[in-house]
Amino acid sequence: MQDFNDPGIGKELIARIGSLAEKTGPVRIMEVCGTHTMAIGRFGIRKLLPEHIHLISGPGCPVCVTPGEYIDNTARIALSEDITVATFGDMIRVPGIHTSLELARAEGARIEVITNPLDILLIKGEVLFCAVGFETTAAPIAAAFSRAVQEKRDNISFYTSLKLIPPTLSLLCADEEIGITGFLLPGHVSTVIGSAAYGFLKIPSSISGFEMIDILDGIMRILSMISEGKTRVENGYRRAVTPEGNKKAQEIIISCFEPCTEQWRGIGLLPDCSLRIREEYRKFDARERFGISSEEDDGMPEGCACGEVLKGIILPDACPLFGNTCMPDHPVGPCMVSSEGSCAAFYKYERGSE
Question: What span, in angstroms and rounded, lies between the C-alpha atoms of 346 and 354?
Fold first, then answer.
């Protein structure tokens, strides 16, 4: 792995990027993975590029695009029912419309942080699991769901906010306001869905890993395609991503969930870009069990520009709340909370660097 952070190789790639950039006009490359966003900030990659090569962050943080109403609903159930809410740690501090899970826990709600979805099978009593994530997380969540069904664990319900990357990319490409020139495609998601899943893309794109060399190589590949007038998807993460992806993971996801239309916080109602529990398993669906209606309000706080940040229209520091009223120790919007949030990454690594 040392080779993927080798300064000498990095300098060579930066020189090649500079040479290719002389042949292009302004370029807007969107990374659609929160881990990429953090790595770009940590390695200072944005500052190493020519001025007309812009890296923009997309909706690559599943916690950030989970509707505020979802958080409020979970907090309400946690406080009104004799139940334990199980959730990933990133969800705890995310502000909903009116409250957060952190505030609900302070009021006495039983909220347990887990790292492995299978851990919900160890919790006694009634359990509501906040099933939040993209395809990478959907697979282990589906494994836990399948176990709950097989074992007839009627005490467990799943409150899903599972999102799909490929159909979302199609919608982002069609948005002229964003003006995406190329995609730095997510490594983790791609290990599950495979490189062939992006065959529909009509702009230069590269699947990339998360080390410095991975990301610079992905940018170089995209610029090379642009300079040649080519449109394709290249796999720069072959050590982890295959064309077909993880078939077993895909099968278990499909066996438990099906595509649906749901809200993406700050973005809107996106058709077939989310997953819901299949009809035959709806008794395990928290929406059915607790009479939760579909989320209609994205619930972004007043003055918060997380929606524009999530769509790549602006960088985080263009939000009027960034670094003023919205900071990691006092987040106003969801992008400042998550370890994969664009605003959190910018605040930690790039604040004041522009």
Answer: 11
239: left (phi over 0), alpha (psi -120 to 50) or beta: alpha
Contact 41, 35 (CB under 8 A): no
Q: Mapping DSSP to helix (H, G, I), strand (E, B) and coil, where does residue 87 land?
A: strand
Backbone angles phi, psi at 94, to 5 degrees: -65, 125
Alpha carbon distance 260, 181 (integer Å) = 28
The CATH fold of domain 1-297: Rossmann fold (3.40.50)
d(CA 193, CA 198): 9
- Residue 32, SS3 per DSSP: coil
Amino acid sitting at position 70 = Y
Q: What is the pLDDT of residues 88-131, one digit of tens each?
A: 999 999 999 999 999 999 999 999 999 999 999 999 999 999 99
In the 3-class helix/strand/coil scheme, how is 42-81 assigned residue by residue?
HCCHHHHCCCCEEEEECCCCCCCCCCHHHHHHHHHHHHHC
Could you tell me which residues come within 8 angstroms of residue 268 by beta carbon, excluding any fewer than 6 positions away? Answer: 298
Closest by alpha carbon to 244, among 292, 303, 297, 190? 190
State the pLDDT confidence band at 340, using cuts at 50, 70 and 90: confident
d(C-alpha 275, C-alpha 258), whole Å: 5
For 151-174, the pLDDT digits (tens) are: 999 999 999 999 999 999 999 998
Q: Which two tokens stand for residue 42?
A: 């940590």
Nearest to 312, CA basis, from 206, 173, 195, 135: 173
Residue ranges covered by each domain of the chain: 1-297, 306-349
Report how far apart the first and last C-alpha atoms of the chain are (Å, whole number): 30
Cβ–Cβ < 8 Å for 86, 58: no
- Residue 4: what pLDDT? 74
Residues 287-309: pLDDT tens digits? 999 999 877 766 788 899 999 99
**Residue 7: how many other CB atoms lie within 10 Å:** 9
Question: C-alpha angle 104/158/90, rounded to 5°?
Answer: 50
